[in-house]
Amino acid sequence: MMRTLLLFLLVSVPSIAMTADRPNILYIMSDDHAAPAISAYGSRLANVAPTPHIDRLAKEGALFTNAFCTNSICSPSRACVMTGQYNHTNGAFDLSGRVAPGEQMLAIQMGKAGYQTAMIGKWHLHHEPADFDYYCVLPGQGKYHDPEFLVRGDKPWGKNKLQFPGKHSSDAITDLTLDWLKDGWDQEQPFFLMHHYKAPHDYFENAERYESYLADVQIPEPDTLWHRDPKFGSLATRGANDELLPHIGTSIGGRNLRRSYLGDLPSLYPNEFPKDFDPAKYSDEENTRFAYQAYLKKYLRCVKGIDDNLGRLFQHLEQTGQIDNTIIIYTGDQGFMLGEHDYQDKRWMFEESQRMPFLVRYPKSIPAGKRYDTIIENVDYAPTMLALAGAEIPGSVQGRSFKSLLETGDEPADWKQAAYYRYWMHMAHHDNPGHLGIRTKTHKLIYFYGCNYDGGYQTPAGWELYDLVNDPQETRNLYDDPDQAERVAELKAQLARLRQSVGDDGSHHPKCEAIVQEFWDYDEADRAKARKISHQYLQRRLAELKAGKLNTRTWQGE
Question: What keywords appear on the UniProt entry (predicted)?
Fold first, then answer.
Protein backbone atom coordinates (compact mmCIF):
# COMPACT_ATOMS: atom_id res chain seq x y z
CA MET A 1 0.00 0.00 0.00
CA MET A 2 2.76 2.43 0.99
CA ARG A 3 4.73 1.58 -2.16
CA THR A 4 1.66 2.25 -4.29
CA LEU A 5 1.12 5.61 -2.57
CA LEU A 6 4.76 6.60 -3.12
CA LEU A 7 4.55 5.71 -6.79
CA PHE A 8 1.36 7.74 -7.05
CA LEU A 9 3.05 10.76 -5.48
CA LEU A 10 6.13 10.45 -7.67
CA VAL A 11 3.98 10.41 -10.79
CA SER A 12 1.48 13.05 -9.66
CA VAL A 13 3.60 15.74 -8.04
CA PRO A 14 5.56 16.78 -11.17
CA SER A 15 2.30 17.02 -13.11
CA ILE A 16 0.75 19.24 -10.45
CA ALA A 17 3.85 21.41 -10.30
CA MET A 18 3.91 21.76 -14.07
CA THR A 19 0.27 22.85 -14.11
CA ALA A 20 0.86 25.39 -11.36
CA ASP A 21 3.89 26.86 -13.14
CA ARG A 22 2.27 27.26 -16.52
CA PRO A 23 0.98 30.74 -17.33
CA ASN A 24 -2.52 31.66 -18.32
CA ILE A 25 -2.73 33.16 -21.80
CA LEU A 26 -5.03 36.09 -22.56
CA TYR A 27 -5.10 36.90 -26.28
CA ILE A 28 -6.86 40.21 -26.89
CA MET A 29 -7.70 41.15 -30.46
CA SER A 30 -9.64 44.16 -31.69
CA ASP A 31 -11.04 44.58 -35.17
CA ASP A 32 -9.26 47.04 -37.48
CA HIS A 33 -7.17 48.60 -34.73
CA ALA A 34 -4.26 50.26 -36.53
CA ALA A 35 -0.94 50.62 -34.73
CA PRO A 36 -0.94 54.45 -35.17
CA ALA A 37 -4.09 54.53 -33.00
CA ILE A 38 -2.12 53.14 -30.04
CA SER A 39 -0.15 55.87 -28.32
CA ALA A 40 2.75 53.53 -27.47
CA TYR A 41 3.55 53.54 -31.19
CA GLY A 42 4.17 57.29 -31.08
CA SER A 43 2.11 58.40 -34.07
CA ARG A 44 0.46 61.75 -34.78
CA LEU A 45 -2.48 60.58 -32.64
CA ALA A 46 -0.50 59.71 -29.51
CA ASN A 47 -1.01 62.99 -27.67
CA VAL A 48 -4.63 63.63 -28.61
CA ALA A 49 -5.94 60.08 -28.04
CA PRO A 50 -3.74 58.21 -25.54
CA THR A 51 -4.33 54.53 -24.80
CA PRO A 52 -2.77 54.12 -21.31
CA HIS A 53 -3.92 50.57 -20.60
CA ILE A 54 -2.68 49.18 -23.90
CA ASP A 55 0.49 51.23 -23.49
CA ARG A 56 1.06 49.50 -20.16
CA LEU A 57 1.76 46.29 -22.05
CA ALA A 58 4.55 48.04 -23.96
CA LYS A 59 5.99 49.66 -20.84
CA GLU A 60 5.98 46.41 -18.88
CA GLY A 61 6.57 44.05 -21.79
CA ALA A 62 7.43 44.08 -25.49
CA LEU A 63 6.17 45.98 -28.54
CA PHE A 64 6.70 44.91 -32.16
CA THR A 65 7.00 47.49 -34.92
CA ASN A 66 7.10 44.97 -37.79
CA ALA A 67 4.14 42.68 -37.09
CA PHE A 68 2.23 42.01 -40.31
CA CYS A 69 -0.94 40.30 -41.43
CA THR A 70 -0.68 38.12 -44.51
CA ASN A 71 -4.07 39.28 -45.85
CA SER A 72 -5.58 42.46 -44.44
CA ILE A 73 -9.21 41.46 -44.08
CA CYS A 74 -11.15 40.08 -41.12
CA SER A 75 -11.98 36.40 -41.64
CA PRO A 76 -8.74 35.48 -43.43
CA SER A 77 -6.60 37.09 -40.74
CA ARG A 78 -8.49 35.32 -37.97
CA ALA A 79 -8.10 32.03 -39.83
CA CYS A 80 -4.32 32.59 -39.97
CA VAL A 81 -4.22 33.07 -36.21
CA MET A 82 -6.39 30.04 -35.52
CA THR A 83 -4.53 27.65 -37.82
CA GLY A 84 -1.01 29.07 -38.07
CA GLN A 85 -1.38 28.74 -41.85
CA TYR A 86 -1.46 31.12 -44.80
CA ASN A 87 -4.86 31.58 -46.43
CA HIS A 88 -4.07 29.53 -49.53
CA THR A 89 -3.46 26.64 -47.10
CA ASN A 90 -6.32 27.11 -44.62
CA GLY A 91 -8.75 27.97 -47.43
CA ALA A 92 -10.00 31.25 -45.93
CA PHE A 93 -9.23 33.45 -48.93
CA ASP A 94 -11.86 36.11 -48.27
CA LEU A 95 -14.78 37.12 -46.05
CA SER A 96 -16.52 33.80 -46.66
CA GLY A 97 -13.52 32.05 -45.09
CA ARG A 98 -14.28 29.66 -42.28
CA VAL A 99 -12.51 27.25 -39.96
CA ALA A 100 -14.59 24.18 -39.16
CA PRO A 101 -14.72 22.28 -35.89
CA GLY A 102 -11.86 19.82 -35.79
CA GLU A 103 -9.65 22.31 -37.65
CA GLN A 104 -9.49 25.04 -34.98
CA MET A 105 -5.91 24.06 -34.27
CA LEU A 106 -5.02 26.61 -31.64
CA ALA A 107 -7.94 25.71 -29.39
CA ILE A 108 -7.40 21.99 -29.92
CA GLN A 109 -3.70 22.05 -29.05
CA MET A 110 -4.22 24.25 -26.01
CA GLY A 111 -6.88 21.84 -24.79
CA LYS A 112 -4.57 18.87 -25.29
CA ALA A 113 -1.94 20.68 -23.23
CA GLY A 114 -4.29 20.93 -20.27
CA TYR A 115 -5.60 24.46 -20.80
CA GLN A 116 -9.20 25.44 -20.32
CA THR A 117 -10.12 27.27 -23.50
CA ALA A 118 -12.60 30.07 -24.12
CA MET A 119 -13.53 32.29 -27.05
CA ILE A 120 -15.47 35.49 -26.23
CA GLY A 121 -16.45 38.29 -28.61
CA LYS A 122 -16.06 38.57 -32.36
CA TRP A 123 -15.40 35.21 -34.04
CA HIS A 124 -16.34 35.83 -37.72
CA LEU A 125 -15.25 32.39 -38.95
CA HIS A 126 -18.84 31.25 -39.57
CA HIS A 127 -18.65 27.68 -38.23
CA GLU A 128 -19.27 26.93 -34.57
CA PRO A 129 -16.13 27.51 -32.44
CA ALA A 130 -16.79 24.05 -31.07
CA ASP A 131 -13.15 23.18 -30.31
CA PHE A 132 -13.21 25.65 -27.41
CA ASP A 133 -14.46 24.48 -24.02
CA TYR A 134 -16.57 27.63 -23.83
CA TYR A 135 -17.63 30.22 -26.34
CA CYS A 136 -19.87 33.25 -26.39
CA VAL A 137 -19.52 34.99 -29.74
CA LEU A 138 -21.16 37.64 -31.87
CA PRO A 139 -23.09 36.22 -34.83
CA GLY A 140 -21.24 37.27 -37.96
CA GLN A 141 -20.14 40.88 -37.71
CA GLY A 142 -22.37 41.48 -34.70
CA LYS A 143 -23.91 44.74 -33.51
CA TYR A 144 -22.31 47.61 -31.66
CA HIS A 145 -25.40 48.37 -29.57
CA ASP A 146 -27.77 45.90 -27.88
CA PRO A 147 -25.53 43.02 -28.95
CA GLU A 148 -26.64 39.42 -29.15
CA PHE A 149 -24.26 36.52 -28.59
CA LEU A 150 -24.28 32.85 -29.51
CA VAL A 151 -23.23 30.76 -26.52
CA ARG A 152 -22.43 27.09 -26.05
CA GLY A 153 -25.50 25.37 -24.65
CA ASP A 154 -27.97 22.53 -24.91
CA LYS A 155 -29.39 23.60 -28.26
CA PRO A 156 -27.61 23.35 -31.64
CA TRP A 157 -25.13 26.00 -32.79
CA GLY A 158 -26.82 29.34 -33.27
CA LYS A 159 -29.86 28.57 -31.08
CA ASN A 160 -28.43 29.38 -27.62
CA LYS A 161 -28.43 33.16 -27.33
CA LEU A 162 -27.61 35.89 -24.83
CA GLN A 163 -28.77 39.46 -25.29
CA PHE A 164 -27.47 42.67 -23.74
CA PRO A 165 -30.09 45.37 -24.29
CA GLY A 166 -28.84 48.85 -23.60
CA LYS A 167 -25.15 47.85 -23.67
CA HIS A 168 -22.33 48.60 -26.05
CA SER A 169 -20.54 45.56 -27.46
CA SER A 170 -17.15 46.48 -25.93
CA ASP A 171 -18.75 46.70 -22.48
CA ALA A 172 -20.72 43.48 -22.98
CA ILE A 173 -17.69 41.53 -24.22
CA THR A 174 -15.66 42.67 -21.22
CA ASP A 175 -18.53 41.77 -18.86
CA LEU A 176 -18.71 38.31 -20.39
CA THR A 177 -14.99 37.75 -19.96
CA LEU A 178 -15.05 38.97 -16.36
CA ASP A 179 -18.00 36.69 -15.61
CA TRP A 180 -16.17 33.72 -17.12
CA LEU A 181 -13.00 34.45 -15.17
CA LYS A 182 -15.03 34.69 -11.96
CA ASP A 183 -17.45 31.81 -12.43
CA GLY A 184 -16.55 29.80 -15.52
CA TRP A 185 -12.82 29.25 -15.20
CA ASP A 186 -11.80 26.04 -13.46
CA GLN A 187 -8.77 27.27 -11.55
CA GLU A 188 -7.31 23.80 -11.42
CA GLN A 189 -6.26 24.48 -15.02
CA PRO A 190 -4.52 27.43 -16.63
CA PHE A 191 -6.75 29.29 -19.06
CA PHE A 192 -6.35 30.13 -22.73
CA LEU A 193 -8.80 32.93 -23.41
CA MET A 194 -9.38 34.70 -26.74
CA HIS A 195 -11.03 38.03 -25.94
CA HIS A 196 -12.08 39.73 -29.20
CA TYR A 197 -13.66 43.16 -29.60
CA LYS A 198 -15.84 44.19 -32.52
CA ALA A 199 -14.56 47.76 -32.19
CA PRO A 200 -13.26 49.79 -33.93
CA HIS A 201 -14.64 48.22 -37.14
CA ASP A 202 -16.59 50.62 -39.34
CA TYR A 203 -19.12 51.99 -39.22
CA PHE A 204 -17.88 53.32 -35.88
CA GLU A 205 -20.54 53.38 -33.20
CA ASN A 206 -19.11 54.34 -29.83
CA ALA A 207 -20.82 54.06 -26.48
CA GLU A 208 -22.92 57.15 -25.75
CA ARG A 209 -20.70 58.19 -22.84
CA TYR A 210 -17.88 58.97 -25.30
CA GLU A 211 -19.83 61.41 -27.49
CA SER A 212 -18.08 64.39 -25.92
CA TYR A 213 -14.62 62.80 -26.11
CA LEU A 214 -12.49 64.70 -28.66
CA ALA A 215 -15.50 66.82 -29.63
CA ASP A 216 -13.54 70.07 -29.45
CA VAL A 217 -10.22 68.61 -30.59
CA GLN A 218 -8.77 69.00 -34.07
CA ILE A 219 -7.41 65.55 -34.97
CA PRO A 220 -4.03 65.79 -36.72
CA GLU A 221 -4.15 64.82 -40.37
CA PRO A 222 -1.65 62.64 -42.22
CA ASP A 223 0.43 64.53 -44.76
CA THR A 224 -0.58 62.11 -47.49
CA LEU A 225 -4.25 62.96 -47.07
CA TRP A 226 -3.43 66.17 -48.94
CA HIS A 227 -0.06 65.73 -50.58
CA ARG A 228 0.33 62.73 -52.87
CA ASP A 229 3.56 62.70 -54.78
CA PRO A 230 3.14 62.30 -58.56
CA LYS A 231 5.24 59.14 -58.21
CA PHE A 232 2.86 57.56 -55.71
CA GLY A 233 1.07 54.51 -57.02
CA SER A 234 1.18 52.99 -60.48
CA LEU A 235 -0.86 52.27 -63.57
CA ALA A 236 -2.64 49.68 -61.39
CA THR A 237 -3.83 52.17 -58.77
CA ARG A 238 -4.06 55.37 -60.84
CA GLY A 239 -4.98 54.10 -64.29
CA ALA A 240 -3.65 55.32 -67.62
CA ASN A 241 -3.19 59.10 -67.37
CA ASP A 242 -4.69 58.90 -63.85
CA GLU A 243 -8.11 58.00 -65.28
CA LEU A 244 -8.88 55.51 -62.48
CA LEU A 245 -8.17 57.79 -59.51
CA PRO A 246 -11.94 58.20 -58.91
CA HIS A 247 -12.42 54.41 -58.98
CA ILE A 248 -9.53 52.68 -57.18
CA GLY A 249 -9.54 52.73 -53.39
CA THR A 250 -12.48 54.16 -51.44
CA SER A 251 -11.85 57.67 -50.18
CA ILE A 252 -12.22 60.04 -47.26
CA GLY A 253 -13.29 62.98 -49.42
CA GLY A 254 -15.28 62.82 -52.62
CA ARG A 255 -12.56 61.36 -54.87
CA ASN A 256 -14.14 57.89 -55.21
CA LEU A 257 -17.41 58.21 -57.10
CA ARG A 258 -18.88 54.96 -55.73
CA ARG A 259 -18.05 55.07 -52.04
CA SER A 260 -16.54 57.70 -49.78
CA TYR A 261 -16.79 58.73 -46.15
CA LEU A 262 -17.95 62.13 -47.38
CA GLY A 263 -20.91 60.29 -48.90
CA ASP A 264 -21.53 57.90 -46.02
CA LEU A 265 -20.84 59.67 -42.74
CA PRO A 266 -23.02 62.82 -42.79
CA SER A 267 -26.23 60.79 -42.60
CA LEU A 268 -24.77 58.36 -40.04
CA TYR A 269 -23.24 60.97 -37.75
CA PRO A 270 -24.92 64.34 -38.44
CA ASN A 271 -23.64 65.80 -35.19
CA GLU A 272 -20.09 65.55 -36.54
CA PHE A 273 -20.90 67.89 -39.44
CA PRO A 274 -22.21 71.46 -39.69
CA LYS A 275 -25.95 71.81 -39.17
CA ASP A 276 -27.94 71.04 -42.33
CA PHE A 277 -24.71 69.98 -43.99
CA ASP A 278 -24.68 70.24 -47.77
CA PRO A 279 -21.33 69.41 -49.39
CA ALA A 280 -22.21 71.59 -52.37
CA LYS A 281 -21.76 74.62 -50.12
CA TYR A 282 -18.13 73.77 -49.32
CA SER A 283 -14.88 73.25 -51.18
CA ASP A 284 -13.38 69.81 -51.79
CA GLU A 285 -10.77 70.53 -49.14
CA GLU A 286 -13.36 71.56 -46.56
CA ASN A 287 -15.50 68.50 -47.31
CA THR A 288 -12.52 66.16 -46.98
CA ARG A 289 -11.59 67.77 -43.68
CA PHE A 290 -15.15 67.41 -42.34
CA ALA A 291 -15.23 63.72 -43.30
CA TYR A 292 -11.76 63.03 -41.90
CA GLN A 293 -12.55 64.64 -38.55
CA ALA A 294 -15.84 62.72 -38.25
CA TYR A 295 -14.12 59.47 -39.22
CA LEU A 296 -11.25 59.80 -36.78
CA LYS A 297 -13.34 61.00 -33.86
CA LYS A 298 -15.81 58.13 -34.14
CA TYR A 299 -12.97 55.64 -34.63
CA LEU A 300 -10.96 56.95 -31.68
CA ARG A 301 -14.01 56.97 -29.43
CA CYS A 302 -14.37 53.26 -30.12
CA VAL A 303 -10.67 52.81 -29.28
CA LYS A 304 -11.19 54.74 -26.04
CA GLY A 305 -13.95 52.28 -25.13
CA ILE A 306 -11.59 49.36 -25.70
CA ASP A 307 -8.82 50.89 -23.62
CA ASP A 308 -11.12 51.73 -20.71
CA ASN A 309 -12.55 48.21 -20.73
CA LEU A 310 -9.06 46.75 -20.71
CA GLY A 311 -8.47 48.80 -17.57
CA ARG A 312 -11.36 46.91 -15.97
CA LEU A 313 -10.01 43.59 -17.17
CA PHE A 314 -6.46 44.23 -15.98
CA GLN A 315 -7.75 45.45 -12.62
CA HIS A 316 -9.56 42.15 -12.12
CA LEU A 317 -6.41 40.19 -12.92
CA GLU A 318 -4.50 42.29 -10.39
CA GLN A 319 -7.12 41.89 -7.69
CA THR A 320 -7.15 38.11 -8.14
CA GLY A 321 -3.36 37.84 -8.18
CA GLN A 322 -3.30 36.56 -11.77
CA ILE A 323 -1.87 39.44 -13.76
CA ASP A 324 1.78 38.41 -13.43
CA ASN A 325 0.87 34.77 -14.06
CA THR A 326 -0.88 35.65 -17.31
CA ILE A 327 0.70 36.23 -20.70
CA ILE A 328 -1.26 39.18 -22.06
CA ILE A 329 -1.16 39.82 -25.80
CA TYR A 330 -2.82 42.74 -27.55
CA THR A 331 -3.21 42.96 -31.31
CA GLY A 332 -5.64 43.72 -34.11
CA ASP A 333 -6.84 41.42 -36.85
CA GLN A 334 -5.08 43.80 -39.27
CA GLY A 335 -4.27 47.47 -39.56
CA PHE A 336 -6.49 50.22 -40.96
CA MET A 337 -6.06 53.23 -43.21
CA LEU A 338 -6.66 56.36 -41.14
CA GLY A 339 -6.81 58.78 -44.04
CA GLU A 340 -3.36 58.07 -45.44
CA HIS A 341 -3.33 58.57 -49.24
CA ASP A 342 -7.03 59.48 -48.94
CA TYR A 343 -7.84 55.79 -48.41
CA GLN A 344 -10.29 54.23 -45.97
CA ASP A 345 -10.64 50.67 -44.66
CA LYS A 346 -7.81 48.08 -44.94
CA ARG A 347 -7.01 45.42 -47.63
CA TRP A 348 -4.05 47.37 -49.03
CA MET A 349 -0.48 46.22 -48.61
CA PHE A 350 0.39 49.78 -47.62
CA GLU A 351 1.91 50.08 -44.15
CA GLU A 352 -1.09 51.32 -42.19
CA SER A 353 -3.15 48.36 -43.40
CA GLN A 354 -0.55 45.59 -43.46
CA ARG A 355 1.00 46.38 -40.08
CA MET A 356 -0.67 44.97 -36.98
CA PRO A 357 -0.10 46.20 -33.45
CA PHE A 358 1.47 43.50 -31.31
CA LEU A 359 2.24 43.99 -27.63
CA VAL A 360 2.89 41.28 -25.04
CA ARG A 361 3.42 41.33 -21.28
CA TYR A 362 4.66 38.51 -19.06
CA PRO A 363 7.15 39.78 -16.45
CA LYS A 364 8.30 36.29 -15.45
CA SER A 365 10.17 35.78 -18.72
CA ILE A 366 9.65 38.79 -21.03
CA PRO A 367 11.84 41.80 -20.11
CA ALA A 368 10.03 45.12 -19.76
CA GLY A 369 10.31 47.96 -22.23
CA LYS A 370 11.56 45.95 -25.18
CA ARG A 371 10.90 47.17 -28.72
CA TYR A 372 11.53 44.82 -31.64
CA ASP A 373 11.80 45.42 -35.38
CA THR A 374 11.87 41.67 -36.05
CA ILE A 375 9.47 40.71 -38.84
CA ILE A 376 6.65 38.56 -37.51
CA GLU A 377 3.42 37.51 -39.25
CA ASN A 378 0.05 36.54 -37.87
CA VAL A 379 0.76 32.92 -38.83
CA ASP A 380 3.49 33.06 -36.15
CA TYR A 381 1.12 33.97 -33.32
CA ALA A 382 -0.32 30.50 -32.75
CA PRO A 383 3.00 28.62 -32.60
CA THR A 384 4.39 31.29 -30.27
CA MET A 385 1.46 30.94 -27.87
CA LEU A 386 1.67 27.16 -28.04
CA ALA A 387 5.40 27.29 -27.27
CA LEU A 388 4.80 29.63 -24.34
CA ALA A 389 2.20 27.17 -23.04
CA GLY A 390 4.49 24.17 -23.46
CA ALA A 391 2.01 22.73 -25.95
CA GLU A 392 2.77 20.72 -29.08
CA ILE A 393 3.02 22.59 -32.38
CA PRO A 394 1.61 20.30 -35.09
CA GLY A 395 3.30 19.83 -38.43
CA SER A 396 0.43 21.56 -40.22
CA VAL A 397 1.54 24.93 -38.85
CA GLN A 398 3.40 27.13 -41.34
CA GLY A 399 4.30 29.88 -38.88
CA ARG A 400 7.15 29.78 -36.41
CA SER A 401 7.41 30.51 -32.70
CA PHE A 402 9.30 33.63 -31.62
CA LYS A 403 9.30 32.58 -27.95
CA SER A 404 13.09 32.65 -27.75
CA LEU A 405 13.15 36.22 -29.06
CA LEU A 406 10.70 37.32 -26.36
CA GLU A 407 12.75 35.69 -23.63
CA THR A 408 16.30 36.49 -24.76
CA GLY A 409 15.86 39.61 -26.85
CA ASP A 410 17.90 38.06 -29.63
CA GLU A 411 16.50 37.52 -33.11
CA PRO A 412 17.41 33.98 -34.22
CA ALA A 413 20.11 33.93 -36.89
CA ASP A 414 17.85 32.01 -39.28
CA TRP A 415 14.72 34.12 -38.69
CA LYS A 416 12.67 35.30 -41.68
CA GLN A 417 13.74 38.59 -43.24
CA ALA A 418 10.60 39.18 -45.28
CA ALA A 419 6.84 38.99 -44.91
CA TYR A 420 4.51 37.64 -47.60
CA TYR A 421 1.23 39.34 -48.47
CA ARG A 422 -1.71 38.36 -50.67
CA TYR A 423 -5.06 40.12 -50.99
CA TRP A 424 -7.43 37.98 -53.04
CA MET A 425 -10.86 39.65 -52.89
CA HIS A 426 -10.36 41.74 -56.03
CA MET A 427 -12.23 45.09 -56.09
CA ALA A 428 -14.73 43.94 -53.46
CA HIS A 429 -16.43 46.56 -51.27
CA HIS A 430 -13.53 49.05 -51.18
CA ASP A 431 -12.20 48.93 -54.75
CA ASN A 432 -8.84 47.34 -53.96
CA PRO A 433 -7.28 45.37 -56.83
CA GLY A 434 -5.98 41.87 -56.19
CA HIS A 435 -2.31 42.02 -55.27
CA LEU A 436 0.60 40.23 -53.65
CA GLY A 437 4.01 41.29 -52.47
CA ILE A 438 7.02 41.11 -50.21
CA ARG A 439 7.95 43.34 -47.31
CA THR A 440 11.51 43.39 -45.94
CA LYS A 441 12.83 45.62 -43.17
CA THR A 442 13.85 48.23 -45.72
CA HIS A 443 11.72 47.82 -48.87
CA LYS A 444 8.31 46.79 -50.10
CA LEU A 445 7.51 45.39 -53.54
CA ILE A 446 3.80 45.19 -54.44
CA TYR A 447 2.43 43.47 -57.53
CA PHE A 448 -1.11 44.50 -58.45
CA TYR A 449 -2.05 41.76 -60.91
CA GLY A 450 -5.60 43.07 -61.09
CA CYS A 451 -8.04 40.19 -61.50
CA ASN A 452 -10.38 37.96 -59.51
CA TYR A 453 -10.28 34.21 -58.83
CA ASP A 454 -11.50 33.49 -62.36
CA GLY A 455 -9.08 35.85 -64.06
CA GLY A 456 -11.98 38.22 -64.68
CA TYR A 457 -13.14 41.75 -63.86
CA GLN A 458 -9.67 42.93 -64.80
CA THR A 459 -8.08 46.17 -63.73
CA PRO A 460 -4.66 47.20 -65.07
CA ALA A 461 -1.63 45.37 -63.72
CA GLY A 462 1.25 47.30 -62.20
CA TRP A 463 4.22 47.12 -59.82
CA GLU A 464 5.21 49.41 -56.96
CA LEU A 465 8.50 49.60 -55.03
CA TYR A 466 8.87 51.69 -51.87
CA ASP A 467 12.03 52.51 -49.93
CA LEU A 468 10.77 52.31 -46.34
CA VAL A 469 13.94 53.79 -44.85
CA ASN A 470 13.97 57.00 -46.87
CA ASP A 471 10.25 57.12 -47.67
CA PRO A 472 8.37 55.54 -44.73
CA GLN A 473 5.07 57.09 -45.83
CA GLU A 474 5.31 55.25 -49.17
CA THR A 475 4.92 58.31 -51.35
CA ARG A 476 7.28 57.52 -54.28
CA ASN A 477 7.07 54.39 -56.39
CA LEU A 478 10.65 53.57 -57.46
CA TYR A 479 9.84 50.60 -59.68
CA ASP A 480 10.79 52.41 -62.90
CA ASP A 481 13.80 54.21 -61.45
CA PRO A 482 16.85 52.96 -63.43
CA ASP A 483 18.96 53.11 -60.25
CA GLN A 484 16.59 50.57 -58.67
CA ALA A 485 16.60 48.04 -61.51
CA GLU A 486 18.92 45.63 -59.73
CA ARG A 487 16.92 45.87 -56.50
CA VAL A 488 13.68 45.25 -58.40
CA ALA A 489 15.14 42.11 -59.98
CA GLU A 490 16.41 40.87 -56.61
CA LEU A 491 13.09 41.48 -54.86
CA LYS A 492 11.11 39.87 -57.69
CA ALA A 493 13.28 36.76 -57.44
CA GLN A 494 12.92 36.77 -53.65
CA LEU A 495 9.15 37.16 -53.98
CA ALA A 496 8.97 34.21 -56.39
CA ARG A 497 10.95 32.05 -53.96
CA LEU A 498 8.82 33.18 -51.03
CA ARG A 499 5.64 32.28 -52.90
CA GLN A 500 6.95 28.77 -53.42
CA SER A 501 8.19 28.38 -49.85
CA VAL A 502 4.81 29.28 -48.35
CA GLY A 503 2.97 27.16 -50.93
CA ASP A 504 1.20 29.85 -52.94
CA ASP A 505 2.03 28.15 -56.24
CA GLY A 506 -1.05 29.34 -58.14
CA SER A 507 -2.76 25.96 -58.21
CA HIS A 508 -5.63 27.21 -56.02
CA HIS A 509 -6.97 29.53 -58.71
CA PRO A 510 -5.21 28.71 -62.00
CA LYS A 511 -7.02 31.31 -64.12
CA CYS A 512 -5.91 33.99 -61.72
CA GLU A 513 -2.38 32.61 -61.72
CA ALA A 514 -2.29 32.86 -65.52
CA ILE A 515 -2.81 36.62 -65.19
CA VAL A 516 -0.19 36.80 -62.42
CA GLN A 517 2.34 35.18 -64.74
CA GLU A 518 1.30 37.18 -67.80
CA PHE A 519 2.27 40.55 -66.31
CA TRP A 520 5.16 39.37 -64.11
CA ASP A 521 7.93 40.68 -66.41
CA TYR A 522 6.03 43.90 -67.11
CA ASP A 523 7.72 44.71 -70.37
CA GLU A 524 6.46 47.30 -72.86
CA ALA A 525 3.91 44.90 -74.33
CA ASP A 526 2.56 44.21 -70.81
CA ARG A 527 2.31 47.92 -70.09
CA ALA A 528 0.53 48.59 -73.36
CA LYS A 529 -2.01 45.90 -72.55
CA ALA A 530 -2.41 47.27 -69.03
CA ARG A 531 -3.23 50.71 -70.45
CA LYS A 532 -5.83 49.12 -72.71
CA ILE A 533 -7.34 47.30 -69.73
CA SER A 534 -7.43 50.62 -67.86
CA HIS A 535 -9.54 52.20 -70.62
CA GLN A 536 -11.83 49.17 -70.74
CA TYR A 537 -12.27 49.10 -66.99
CA LEU A 538 -13.09 52.80 -66.85
CA GLN A 539 -15.92 52.28 -69.32
CA ARG A 540 -17.17 49.29 -67.35
CA ARG A 541 -17.16 51.18 -64.04
CA LEU A 542 -18.86 54.25 -65.53
CA ALA A 543 -21.58 52.01 -66.99
CA GLU A 544 -22.09 50.39 -63.58
CA LEU A 545 -22.42 53.77 -61.90
CA LYS A 546 -24.85 55.00 -64.54
CA ALA A 547 -26.97 51.88 -64.00
CA GLY A 548 -26.87 52.35 -60.22
CA LYS A 549 -24.88 49.14 -59.71
CA LEU A 550 -22.94 50.10 -56.60
CA ASN A 551 -22.30 46.61 -55.23
CA THR A 552 -21.23 44.50 -58.18
CA ARG A 553 -19.87 41.06 -57.31
CA THR A 554 -16.33 41.62 -58.51
CA TRP A 555 -14.31 38.81 -56.97
CA GLN A 556 -15.75 36.01 -59.09
CA GLY A 557 -16.81 35.63 -62.71
CA GLU A 558 -15.95 37.68 -65.77
Answer: Glycoprotein, Hydrolase, Signal
